[in-house]
Specification:
The complex is a heterodimer of chains A (119) and B (212). With 119 residues, chain A is mainly alpha-helical. Chain A has one domain. Chain A contains three helices and no strands. Chain A is rod-shaped. The two termini of chain A are 21 Å apart. With 212 residues, chain B is mainly alpha-helical. Chain B has two domains: 109 residues; 101 residues, no CATH class. Chain B contains five helices and two strands, in the order ααββααα. Chain B has a two-stranded antiparallel ribbon with strand order 1-2. In chain B, helix 1 runs antiparallel to helix 2 and helix 3 packs antiparallel against helix 5. The longest helix of chain B has 49 residues. Chain B starts with a helix and ends with a helix. Classes of the chains: A mainly alpha (119), B mainly alpha (212). At the A-B interface, helix 1, helix 2 and helix 3 of A face helix 1, strand 2 and helix 5 of B.
Chain lengths: 119, 212
């Protein structure tokens, strides 16, 4: 007697091995990074600083990692572009890692099932 | 076997498949986040070392307060990579653990079937914004709570000027127990909103690409 509901199992297997869209994840994380950095920079610029003080000396240290970034309106745009690029790369990498590991796992399961049937 | 017993067996099998998948996903997310965070910390340290100058990594070196034996040096870069991996893996487990709670309630609510029907063509997953928000919010709030109270416990809260700068973005936050609760609540709220945004953008693009 078949005790497994084929549709239910197929549904679960599909859900468990569902792929991530690398472009979509990269774009969403990149956009998030760009918006957050723009907001953080803009917030400090609007808030300003006392006379003789620098605006955002700590946030400005990001220039060590983001070339040409500075706590200024122009820097906010440059930082946003760079944050988008880094976020996109990280997001796409995460999606590729996810898809690859799940693909390998699925292949191992399929192979194991096939070998089991051969025995 | 009766019909009732068949249904029970089916549900049990489905549950087993689901739990195995969630366990596997949790391991994948943990290891991936561990590698990413470890690589980021190594790279950040290495960039500062290569750039050189006086007082190299004055601010990044403060991570040594939280990561034992870490410093902005070449050995420190590898120690940082290790701690980054550990921290990333634990964070990944907490994040996916919280996300999986919602999957257990309705795992197939967010799938995009591809138009292609040749061979094994798995669907593209859609993100649940609230579920991601719950996971990311819990993780962020927990991290801020633990980091702040670690500074309180070691008795350096009053001197933690850099940590206190978070008060610029989180009104009411201070390096104290009460501040960690206030800051944690705000981080949870921000992470929840951020997650809704990420999920909305991801789902919109994924839907658009699936329709092509």
């Amino acid at each position: 007697m078949q005790v497994m509901n084929d549709n239910a199992v197929e549904r679960l297997v599909k859900a468990a091995f569902a792929r991530m869209d690398a472009v979509a994840l990269g774009t969403s994380i990149g956009a998030l990074g760009a918006i957050l950095l723009s907001l953080a920079t803009g917030f400090l610029l609007v808030k300003g600083a006392g006379s003789g003080e620098h605006i955002g000396p700590h946030l400005g240290l990001l220039a060590n990692f983001l070339p040409f970034y500075s706590v200024s309106w122009g820097g906010a745009v440059i930082g946003a572009i760079e944050a988008f690029a880094i976020g996109f790369a990280v997001g796409a990498l995460l999606a590729v890692a996810w898809n690859l590991t799940h693909h390998i796992w699925l292949m191992l399961i399929v192979r194991g099932t096939y070998e089991g049937q051969q025995l | 076997m009766s019909a009732a017993a068949t249904v029970t067996a089916t549900a049990s099998t489905d549950r087993s498949v689901l739990e195995r998948a969630i366990r596997f996903n949790l391991i994948v997310v943990s290891i991936t986040m561990g590698f990413v965070l470890g690589a980021v910390l190594w790279l950040a340290t290495a960039i500062l070392l290569v750039r050189g100058g006086t007082h190299v990594g004055l601010h990044l070196g403060l991570l040594g307060v939280f990561l034992p034996f870490y410093s902005v040096s070449w050995p420190g870069a590898f120690i940082g990579a290790f701690w980054g991996f550990v921290g990333g893996a634990v964070s990944g487990a907490i994040l996916y653990g919280a996300y999986a709670r919602s999957l257990r309630r309705g795992i197939t609510t967010g799938l995009l079937e591809s138009g292609e029907r040749t061979g094994i063509r798995l669907p593209v997953m859609l993100m649940s914004g609230p579920a991601l928000g719950l996971g990311l919010g819990t993780l962020g709030a927990l991290q801020l709570f633990l980091a702040t109270n670690w500074l309180v416990v070691r008795g350096t809260a009053a001197y933690s000027e850099n940590a206190a700068l978070l008060g610029q973005y989180l009104p009411g936050y201070t390096v104290s127990f009460a501040g960690s609760l206030i800051g944690g609540a705000q981080v949870f709220a921000i992470a929840f909103i951020v997650s809704l945004f990420v999920a909305a953008v991801y789902n919109k693009i994924a839907r658009g690409r699936a329709q092509r």
